[in-house]
Each structure stands twice: as structure tokens, then as C-alpha cells.
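pasting input
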Amino acid sequence: MPTTQKNQQRSKKPPRQNEKALFDLPSHPMLWRGKDLLSRTSSDLFQGATLPSGYPDLDRHLQGGGWPQQGLMELLLPQAGIGELRLLLPVLQQLTQGAYIAWINPPFIPYATALKAWEVNTDNLLIVRTRTHDETLWSMERCCLSSGCAGVMAWPEERQLNIKETRRIQLAARSGSTLAMLFRPISAIERSSLAELRLALRPAACADHLSLDIIKRKGGWPIQGIELSLTQASQTPYDMMHSLHQQLAVWEKAQQTPMPGNVIDEAAKSEQEAKSQNRRNTTSHSDTAGALH
Amino acid sequence: MPKQVQVVIEEQKRVSHMNEAADAAGILPGCTLATAHSISPELIYFQRDANREQACLMDLAQALYRYSSMVSLELPDCIVLEIKGSLKLWGNAQTISQDALALCADMGYHGVARHAATPQAAIALARAQTHSLFNVPLHVLELLNQGFSQRNLERLSNMGIYTLGQLIQLPHAGLGKRFGQCLTRYLGRLQGQLPDPRQGIRPAEHFSRQQHLLKPIRNKEVLLRGPMPYLTKQLEHWLIAHQQGCIALNWRFAPFKGEATRLVIRLGQGKQRHQDILKLSALKLENIELPSEVLTVGLDMTVSQPWLGNNQDLFGSTASATLAISELVDELRARLGQRACYSIRTQPQHSPEQAWQGVTGLSAKPANEPATDPAATDQRSAGLLQGRRPLWLFRQPQAIAREQLILLQGPERLADPMTETGVNAASAEHRDYYIARHAHGALCWVYTHQAAAPADNNSRWFLHGYFG
């Protein structure tokens, strides 16, 4: 017994020292930690300037509490139109007030009327069409470096885009204090990129929501499954009868197998009714609609 | 401290110039090459080459062009700058000469700068390295170049006249009679009594320089420390003098025998500073194979553009942003074509297809246009428009299967622009627009024709935009 006690005592003493050493370790001057880098950059006002995204839930996860004001950001989408522009509306509103935003090879026409209604300054939008991948990269770089552009949105040729080019765009965006946004298909998730921030967007169950994964960010680990309500920024709910639609879909599915043709008609009719009611709601109480949702 | 190699320049087997090490060893100018060799056996000598001296003088004159628009050569050893016109910019002659000497030192030349009221006086002062014209000895004036004969010079020295001061005090008429009009003309130009038109150099239109090395270079590091900075500095002087920014340039690295290796550098933006150019060249140089021994380094500038200084914006005004953007648009259009770059405008049109317009380039600030879409024409409903039109519009509506859609809002009835413009406008068809969700998750703007009921599976549906 005494021997074991002794042993215990002996074994107890060194750990205490170790603990102390461990406790002191973070303050050791030779130790470099990733956090240091972060605190340094955030203290640097110019580097760390951010744009509020308009979504408090998202801002919480982003370094500095918003989109970076300069640098490269990637948005990976399975399909155009799932809410990527609504997500960026607050940014577009802010950036177009004093400077231009270049759209390089957008997949469709950015509709001026709608953008204007959402208080985006459409006078400060510039659309660029290119023929080759080289031209796309070149115009991205030129736009990033120009002091007149605050933002560059580009839809590059995915097959030809490589990691070196993302680095080049990132450097150009930094030196020109521009926010460059690359829109890439979701398959690019597998490919590495030197963007500061990479987001994967996926449609959520409801049309007014967007499911978002942060694949890469500064000062933190990737986060999955952030669900944003796009009405926070756009103030326009589209899918107010979401639960009803869901029920309808389930019901449709159940009914589909025995007698498909009739039921679908029925379902569509009831859906239509719901919709017309919905429309009446939105027209008469458009202000309260957002709050209701 | 490493011992410096003694170098002398010989002319007709006699030492004419030498470096400091040779001077320290006791070699005197004018001694024969054999004497010099006996003093210092390890000495290196080169033959004096008037053509190369002149080429160097010309290079230097090109660089000095930044101080004055009137730069002329006075062979064999002087460059004359007319600085009266530059005084306002630089302040005074002292500043210019200090700056010019620093530039010469930067290019590896040691110079003496003097300023005077006439070119000949400045040349005389600089050659004699003195500040007073009266102290200038006659033998340094290079009077022989002015058509003055050796015999006359000797005659002057026999008369006991050794300096310019003594010469000026003599009566000009008598001097002219005895020594010819050459001397009186020279003295007239010296004192500003006669005009002295000079032929100015023209700045070279193309920059193409090369440097031959004394010893072959095997190491890229050495190249980056020695000849390449020298050439890029020369390029910088050229660019400043021409107010150009460099876009593309060519390096040539040639061995003693054989093909030169070429290295093409492209700069996205016009650059002037030699540090920028050198930095990029260094990056590119890492990736290429050079000849094992480089003996000649050449630099040609192939493309340049007018230099645009980066103006700093004091108040962050939008005016400078607009200026910057118009430059950008010019640049984009120059490379991508006239129609590649446009801005979008709303149009006072009823139908969605016609309610937007692409304006090539940047148009002048548009006036407050009347609202466009039917919903926006009404002030009351203008707020409603927000969210009722898609952010993405298709150029051509696309057919879409009804089964893939879940209709969320609608319908909104709009006239079909195709039939509306037709002959029988009365029977114009209408489109019923819905906001719908596609099975793949996108929020769509779809329409069907008025006649068809939304539940009618046979009606054709079209996708006209995404809410994005």
C-alpha cells in the first residue's frame, strides 16, 4: 500500500507541472496560432471591412459580421433562380449607390424593372459579354482592378476554370478593393478554390427559404445547413401557403397511384383556389404579409 | 574587402582613362600600355571606342529628356539641356542639376553639371569643372572641334594666354584678324552675342536596348541584380519621357554563340516603375531555361499605352468612379468588341420583353424616365411591383411542362407583345402570368395564354424568368 501511495504521489506531481505548462502554452511567444492572424486582420480596418448581408443569421457566421468588402466569394448553385439574387439584393442595393457592379456573362437578362423596384440603382450596372474563357478572366480582372467597380459578378466557364485563375481573381479583387462573386455549379464543391468565402446554396422546402452551407470561410470551420428566410431582405413572401402546398403534395402522391388524371385536376383546382385567396391577401395586406410569415 | 580589378582604356597604345584602382596603383594618363602593364600585370585594358561612347551619351541624353524638351549632344562628352522652360516646374537650376546627376549615377555614370546663360558657357564650365568662366583653361575647351587649329592654340599659349578670361578681355576685332573668324564666333556664342541654335535630340520612338556583359553570367540571381535592373531603369526613363505605360515587353538572353532565349512579359495595366516591371520579369524568369552562359541581355518594349496616373480620390466622389468606369468600358470594348459591354435601362413599355433596354456602353445620366411596367405606372401600386417581376428575364420564353410547377401566386394578365403589335390589335391575346415553383427549386415566372384555364393540362406553359 505505501508503495502505491508513493507512486500516486509521484505520478501526481509531474502532471501538475505539465498542466501548468499546458496552461502557459498559448501565451508562449514561439507558438503561432491561427487566431492571431484573424485578430490582426480584423484590427486592420481596410482589410476587414465588411458589408452587412441583410441576414442576421448569416452575418453571425461570417467573419466581421458580413460579406467581405474585398476579395473573392463563390456561390455554388445547383440551378439558377433558386434565390441567389434575392440573397444578394442587400449587397446590390448597397454597392450600386456609389459605384458600379459588373455582371460578366450572366445566364439571363438582369431585369431592370425588377431590380429598380428593389431599390437597386440600375444606372450603375454594367453587363459584359465575352466569347472565350480568357476574355472572361481578363474582363474580370480589369473590372476588379478598376476603381469604379465595387462589385463583380461572374458566371465563368466551369470546365476551364482552374485554381490558379481563382487566385488571380482574388488578388485582383483585393488590390482593387472589389468584391468579386463567382457563380459556379454545385459540382464545383469538389474542386478547390482560393476564394475567401465559399457558399453552397440549395433550395429549401419552401420557396421563400434558402438552405446554405458555408464550405470555406475565414476564421472558422465549415458550417452546414443554415436556413435563411429570404423575405428578411426582400420583404416579399411568395410561398405563403407553403404548408398547404406540402400537404397537397403528399395527398397528391397518395392519390396519384389509383386514378392519376382526375385527382391532379382536382388538386390543381384546390391549389388554384388557395392561390387566388393568397393573392387577395397579398394585395390587400402587403405590409403585414411579411410579418405574418 | 575584395580587390578591385584595374581597368584602363587605351587609345593609340596609350592610357587615356582608367578606374580608381588603376589610379591608386600609380598609372598615369598618357603613359604607354607597356608601362601600365609593367606597373600592374593583372590589368585589363579596352580599346577606346568612340561609337560606343556616343551611344552611351545618346542613351543618357534620352533619359535626361525628362528635364527638358530641348536636349542636344555636344560630342564627345557633353549633353546640353535647355532648362529655362523647366525652371518653373523644378524650382531652380540647382535642383535640376542635382536630380539629373542622381539619375546619371543611377544609370552608372559619373557626371558634372554646370549651368550658365549660354550653352557654350555651360559646356566650358562643365569641361573645366569650375564655376567661373574666367578660370577655364583654353586646352579643355575642345576648340579643335570648333574648327580651331592646333597651331593657333599654340600661338595663343605662346602669347601667354592660357585661360578663357584672358582671351575674352582681348579686343575681338584683333583676335578675328589674327586667329580667324572661328574664334570670334566661338566667343560670341559663349557670351551670348551670337545666336547658338542647337539640334535637339528626338526621343526614340521604340525602346530597344541591349547590354553586353564583360563576363558571361550563369546565374539568374546575378542577372536580376545587374543587367536587368539597369535595362528596366532605362525603360522607366523612356516611359516617363514619353508619358507611356508599358503593356508588353520582350527580354532576350543571348549566349556568345547560338539562339537567344526570349521571354515575353505582359502587364495587365500600363506600368512605369522599374520595380514593377522587374518583379514580374523575375517571376517569369523562374520558369524558363536560360542559355548556360548569357553574354548579352536585351530588352525591347513591344506594346505601350498612354500613361494614366492613378489619381487619388479626396472625397470619394462618384465623379472619379464614373471616370474610372468609362475608362474601363473603353478598355473592355476595345478588346471584346463594341457590343460586348452594355448597361441596362428600363423602358416605358408595357410588355416585359420591351420594358428593358441594353444601352451600349454608358449613356449619359438618364432623366427620370416614366415608370415602365403597368404596375409601376400607378403610384399606389408602385410598391407592389417589388417582388412581382423576376430578377432574371429570359430573352425568349421557354416552353415548360405544367407538371413540374407548383403555382404560388397569380394570375396577372398582361398583353402578349407578339399579337398586340399585329394588324388586328382588337383580338390581341393576353398572357396570364403566375409565380410558380419548379420541381428543381427555382422560383419561376410562368405564363399561359388567356384562353386556357390554369388546371388545363393541355394548355402550353412558358417560362419567362426566374425570381433569382
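fyi Chain B has a mean pLDDT of 78.
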